Amino acid sequence: MSSKSFSKPRMNRLFASSGKCFDVAIDHGFFNEVSFLNGIESMEKAIATVVSAAPDAIQLTVGQAEILQRIAGKQKPSLVLRTDVANVYGAVLPRFLFSKIVDDAVEQALRLDAACVVVNLLMLPNQPELHHACIENICKLKPVCDRYGMPLMIEPLVMQSNEKKGGYMVDGDLNKILPLVRQARELGADIIKADPCDDASEYHKVIEAAGVPVLPRGGGRAPDREIFERTIELMKQGSSGIVYGRNVIQHPNPKGMTEAFMAIVHKGAGVEEALGIVGQNSPAPKSNREIK
């Protein structure tokens, strides 16, 4: 029996009957950047809020996954386990760059009942050693994932110069994204989490290059209408879902945003419907008497 057959049960947990998946990323605390903690100062509260909106999956680290998995019942979202930590997201790059996977990553994922593991494939300007470290991480993970039937999500990220744009700023050049996505597939990705290109209407080329389910990444915070319009276009281009973090957890209404994205991914909701869902779920404004 092929390794793909062994991983199918976990893939089925991730992708609903619609064949789509919305994975909410709440793994930002792994990367030692204070700005990434906005909205997740309390992980218990952040996870509980997102769980209440019932996404397909939540992306967490080995240190925080137990918060999700101690929730009783069988209806909670699946766990996507982040396996690598890196120090590349600051406004100024440090003297020594690294990307390291946690020890026994797949075994830890199994103990935590994860449905998938995720690892970066970073491409920074003039940093080939970092890219090499990411490839080594993937090469270590892939055979162990196959052995245990654990789906491997690879996250190819083409990033701009930190001095130019600050940390975590992606390069939307399609000609840079395509070869890195293909490299992720060649290295054995079962799922690819990739950035949108500058022109979202060309994202079908990324889907074609991948040849496996592609879940676009959300990136930095964007206005509601903008992120909904982009998500709808990416779904039209053939995406199998999305992996969004900051556009959920840093929003004033993370529950409403989760429900709105679920409606887009699984029901084909339009922009106005999505905006309405967020509005309907927004906390009631305080009266003047309550504001202090």
What does this structure look like?
The structure is a single chain. The chain is of the alpha/beta class. The chain has a single domain (3-281), classed as Alpha-Beta Barrel (TIM Barrel). It has helices at residues 3-14, 43-52, 65-69, 105-111, 128-148, 162-165, 174-186, 204-210, 224-236, 246-249, 254-267, 271-281; strands at residues 21-25, 57-60, 78-82, 84-86, 99-101, 116-123, 152-158, 191-194, 214-216, 241-244. The strands form two sheets. It has an eight-stranded parallel sheet. Strand 1, helix 2 (43-52) and strand 2 (57-60) form a beta-alpha-beta unit. Helix 7 packs parallel to helix 8, helix 9 crosses helix 12 (271-281) and helix 11 packs antiparallel against helix 12. It starts with a helix and ends in an 11-residue tail after the last helix. The relative contact order is 0.14. The model is unreliable at 282-292 (pLDDT under 50).
Q: What's the CATH C level?
A: Alpha Beta
Helix content: 40-55%
The gyration radius over C-alpha positions equals 18 Å
The strand order across the widest sheet is 9-8-7-6-3-2-1-10
H/E series:
HEHEHEEEHEHEHHEHEHEHHH
CATH fold-level topology: TIM Barrel
The number of strands is: 10
Average residue-wise pLDDT: 91
Q: In the CATH classification, which architecture applies?
A: Alpha-Beta Barrel
| Poorly predicted segments | 282-292
Biggest sheet descriptor: 8 strands, parallel
Q: How much strand?
A: 15-25%
Q: Helix segment count?
A: 12
CATH superfamily name?
A: Aldolase class I
| Structural class assignment | alpha/beta
N-to-C CA distance: 65 Å
- Counted up, domains total 1
Specify the overall morphology. globular
